[in-house]
Amino acid sequence: MRTINVDLGDRSYPILIGSGLLKDIAHYCAEAGFSERSPLLVVSDTEVAPRYLPALEEALRSHGYTVVSHIMTAGEASKSLAVYEEVMTTAIQAGLDRNSAVLALGGGVVGDLAGFVAATYMRGIGFLQIPTTILAHDSSVGGKVAVNHPLAKNMIGAFYQPSMVLYDLDTLRTLPARQVASGLAEVVKHGLLVDKEFAYWCRDHAEELLDLNVEALGYALERGCAIKADVVGNDEREHGLRAILNLGHTIGHAIEAVGGYGVFLHGEAIAIGMAGSALLAAKLGRDTSIYEDTVSMLSALSLPVRLPSEYDEDELMDAMMHDKKFKEGKMTFIVPDSIGSVSIVNDVQESLVREVLAELKKEERPW
Amino acid sequence: MRTINVDLGDRSYPILIGSGLLKDIAHYCAEAGFSERSPLLVVSDTEVAPRYLPALEEALRSHGYTVVSHIMTAGEASKSLAVYEEVMTTAIQAGLDRNSAVLALGGGVVGDLAGFVAATYMRGIGFLQIPTTILAHDSSVGGKVAVNHPLAKNMIGAFYQPSMVLYDLDTLRTLPARQVASGLAEVVKHGLLVDKEFAYWCRDHAEELLDLNVEALGYALERGCAIKADVVGNDEREHGLRAILNLGHTIGHAIEAVGGYGVFLHGEAIAIGMAGSALLAAKLGRDTSIYEDTVSMLSALSLPVRLPSEYDEDELMDAMMHDKKFKEGKMTFIVPDSIGSVSIVNDVQESLVREVLAELKKEERPW
Ligand SMILES: NC(=O)c1ccc[n+]([C@@H]2O[C@H](COP(=O)([O-])OP(=O)(O)OC[C@H]3O[C@@H](n4cnc5c(N)ncnc54)[C@H](O)[C@@H]3O)[C@@H](O)[C@H]2O)c1
Ligand SMILES: NC(=O)c1ccc[n+]([C@@H]2O[C@H](COP(=O)([O-])OP(=O)(O)OC[C@H]3O[C@@H](n4cnc5c(N)ncnc54)[C@H](O)[C@@H]3O)[C@@H](O)[C@H]2O)c1
Ligand SMILES: [Zn+2]
Ligand SMILES: [Zn+2]
């Protein structure tokens, strides 16, 4: 088992990564300080619950915990205030009290929503994350919890740290292949940000990662979580440094918004976005090998790196203007300086971004 | 002008109490650190907005602030997730960004809801409170923000401190007389908890307080806020000591729940509750003069101290059992030891509480 400690003063917590952790869930709940006298609420979705919930409930009940579960429809559409209210109703009806805790069993959607419930039920109760996707390695570090508003994603939320994160690698075996690759996009992103060696390691071990080899995957998730924990530890409430985590996300979010959520998965959209950031870097005078290497890494992981021609540049630009990453009208981009190092560049010209989008559609590069 | 500093480390903030503060609102917003480049959202209600909002907006705009306002229907029913979502929609449509702030212009309902919006819009933006009721002196200290769930009051919320509280005493002149008395119930509560002299002072200056004499009211609100700030400063997240603030609230909440909200105003319900706590004290062996003096203070402030006979003891007991103040099934009461001093008593017998309720309906006391 691998352990990463997310160091946030009195809100610090451990991330445990390994095989077979779920059968010891009661032990971990006790370690997290959850009392058997207060009901636990497990939040999961319709894809994950049938596979892993019965065993989880059984393991908890046989150790004296009272458990109630709320299963939401799988998919991003459930990350809404309406579902949030339904989960709150379940929590109240089950008699959750101030010593209770919420367990999020699922991917980032379940984690974000259940975390916002935990953050705001009686002004905050216990929270334990059990991520079942690779992408959720990202959402399990940093304490960002949220639901979407019909007008904008992740608009309503809080910063709320879990007591513990349990990453049981066995649950990843049932993840569809596209979801695996999508999650690995965020893993390699963490390498691109601050760890050159790890970024190339991901490329060189792409096959084992896509095959969910426990050794490789455990290491990749450990590094991914550790890098994110490091960035977040230096900037818990996103005042500055933490913004680098948005590498590829400005363009990626625009692609998701314009194409409709689910056409490209989140990791796929930000893979295109990361390719775009590397193109932008070239335009700003950085070495073109950054682009070439970024693309080779993403391609090795079966991720897309080109923008389909049907995406309209005007619509994408519009979507970016509405993106909350623009403070007071200025456009900010995270731009790679080399593999494993990035800068936050403010005042990026709109015309330059537009050029990048146009070139992202083409096979050939201008150099 | 009177200033109280709520001391919470890097979340500390000042409460300013005085006449004519609102005309300088732009100055205070600048002092709170709000930028003119990011829109401000004023949340108010249908009673308060027609009286004070136009001048407030004008004062802000003439100093270069962009302002958008959301006016909700006056009353507790607006403290709901549905209205919360509406305010969020207004905020997004107005383009509020991470440097924006929410201004709550109104009583506790507006303050609690607007505060929860501020706490959760983009995971937290600026928040400034402009309380326009006396009761809101209580909600403006402590950072508790919330909305109600149909099944339980204040169930959904957060701890979120404002940047500043502006108490303009002039706005209190239009407050209906019953609301004035109701607010004074929480003021005298703060005296009953920790300040004997202040509690008797309230009784002796009851007439000036009910008349909204600026000198007396300014002093009473200053003491009320300062006492609450002191309690909260020692226990920001309600782990222990802060529970004393619930004096009179267990019975009071049950009265509100059983009678229907609005039959008794909150302060009226907790006045009966505080009389009940003093009766409970007598039953637990404390001096009966505590009860006599408590009742004389509340009566001087035109507050009720008897439970109307139509309130059913079984229903009240039921409501108390559902009250979130009961941890893991045990009944906890805040019990006065003398005027200006209280204890947290766990394991209060259900039968004793039932006796108190029965006696609260009678004119005569058993001694
Ligand atoms: N909080 C953060 O810091 C943060 C960071 C990144 C992403 N996110 C959020 O995370 C969400 C995306 O996360 P995600 O990709 O995990 O989405 P997801 O939770 O929707 O999971 C993807 C799909 O896989 C299914 N699934 C999950 N685990 C499975 C398993 N073990 N076996 C089979 N199927 C399984 C789900 O039911 C779903 O259909 C987005 O809402 C995004 O905003 C949050
Ligand atoms: N957050 C906390 O710590 C805390 C503490 C105590 C109470 N509360 C909450 O506060 C709420 C009650 O507060 P409240 O009594 O101020 O209720 P309120 O906001 O509903 O105000 C009472 C009534 O007076 C009207 N009003 C307000 N100011 C006025 C003015 N200046 N002139 C004329 N009319 C005016 C309002 O429109 C409303 O109809 C409850 O929801 C309670 O849960 C919160
Ligand atoms: Zn992402
Ligand atoms: Zn109260």
TrEMBL record, chains A, B:
<feature type="binding site">
    <location>
        <position position="186"/>
    </location>
    <ligand>
        <name>Zn(2+)</name>
    </ligand>
</feature>
<keyword id="KW-0963">Cytoplasm</keyword>
<dbReference type="Pfam" id="PF24621">
    <property type="entry name" value="DHQS_C"/>
</dbReference>
<dbReference type="InterPro" id="IPR050071">
    <property type="entry name" value="Dehydroquinate_synthase"/>
</dbReference>
<keyword id="KW-0479">Metal-binding</keyword>
<feature type="binding site">
    <location>
        <begin position="171"/>
        <end position="174"/>
    </location>
    <ligand>
        <name>NAD(+)</name>
    </ligand>
</feature>
<feature type="domain" description="3-dehydroquinate synthase C-terminal">
    <location>
        <begin position="183"/>
        <end position="325"/>
    </location>
</feature>
<dbReference type="InterPro" id="IPR030960">
    <property type="entry name" value="DHQS/DOIS_N"/>
</dbReference>
<protein>
    <recommendedName>
        <fullName>3-dehydroquinate synthase</fullName>
        <ecNumber>4.2.3.4</ecNumber>
    </recommendedName>
</protein>
<dbReference type="InterPro" id="IPR016037">
    <property type="entry name" value="DHQ_synth_AroB"/>
</dbReference>
<keyword id="KW-0456">Lyase</keyword>
<keyword id="KW-0057">Aromatic amino acid biosynthesis</keyword>
<feature type="binding site">
    <location>
        <position position="144"/>
    </location>
    <ligand>
        <name>NAD(+)</name>
    </ligand>
</feature>
<keyword id="KW-0862">Zinc</keyword>
<feature type="binding site">
    <location>
        <position position="153"/>
    </location>
    <ligand>
        <name>NAD(+)</name>
    </ligand>
</feature>
<dbReference type="InterPro" id="IPR056179">
    <property type="entry name" value="DHQS_C"/>
</dbReference>
<dbReference type="GO" id="GO:0046872">
    <property type="term" value="F:metal ion binding"/>
</dbReference>
<dbReference type="GO" id="GO:0009423">
    <property type="term" value="P:chorismate biosynthetic process"/>
</dbReference>
<keyword id="KW-0520">NAD</keyword>
<feature type="binding site">
    <location>
        <position position="266"/>
    </location>
    <ligand>
        <name>Zn(2+)</name>
    </ligand>
</feature>
<dbReference type="InterPro" id="IPR030963">
    <property type="entry name" value="DHQ_synth_fam"/>
</dbReference>
<dbReference type="GO" id="GO:0003856">
    <property type="term" value="F:3-dehydroquinate synthase activity"/>
</dbReference>
<comment type="similarity">
    <text>Belongs to the sugar phosphate cyclases superfamily. Dehydroquinate synthase family.</text>
</comment>
<dbReference type="GO" id="GO:0009073">
    <property type="term" value="P:aromatic amino acid family biosynthetic process"/>
</dbReference>
<feature type="binding site">
    <location>
        <begin position="132"/>
        <end position="133"/>
    </location>
    <ligand>
        <name>NAD(+)</name>
    </ligand>
</feature>
<dbReference type="GO" id="GO:0008652">
    <property type="term" value="P:amino acid biosynthetic process"/>
</dbReference>
<comment type="pathway">
    <text>Metabolic intermediate biosynthesis; chorismate biosynthesis; chorismate from D-erythrose 4-phosphate and phosphoenolpyruvate: step 2/7.</text>
</comment>
<dbReference type="Pfam" id="PF01761">
    <property type="entry name" value="DHQ_synthase"/>
</dbReference>
<keyword id="KW-0170">Cobalt</keyword>
<feature type="domain" description="3-dehydroquinate synthase N-terminal">
    <location>
        <begin position="71"/>
        <end position="181"/>
    </location>
</feature>
<dbReference type="GO" id="GO:0005737">
    <property type="term" value="C:cytoplasm"/>
</dbReference>
<feature type="binding site">
    <location>
        <position position="249"/>
    </location>
    <ligand>
        <name>Zn(2+)</name>
    </ligand>
</feature>
<comment type="function">
    <text>Catalyzes the conversion of 3-deoxy-D-arabino-heptulosonate 7-phosphate (DAHP) to dehydroquinate (DHQ).</text>
</comment>
<keyword id="KW-0547">Nucleotide-binding</keyword>
<dbReference type="GO" id="GO:0000166">
    <property type="term" value="F:nucleotide binding"/>
</dbReference>
<feature type="binding site">
    <location>
        <begin position="108"/>
        <end position="112"/>
    </location>
    <ligand>
        <name>NAD(+)</name>
    </ligand>
</feature>
<keyword id="KW-0028">Amino-acid biosynthesis</keyword>
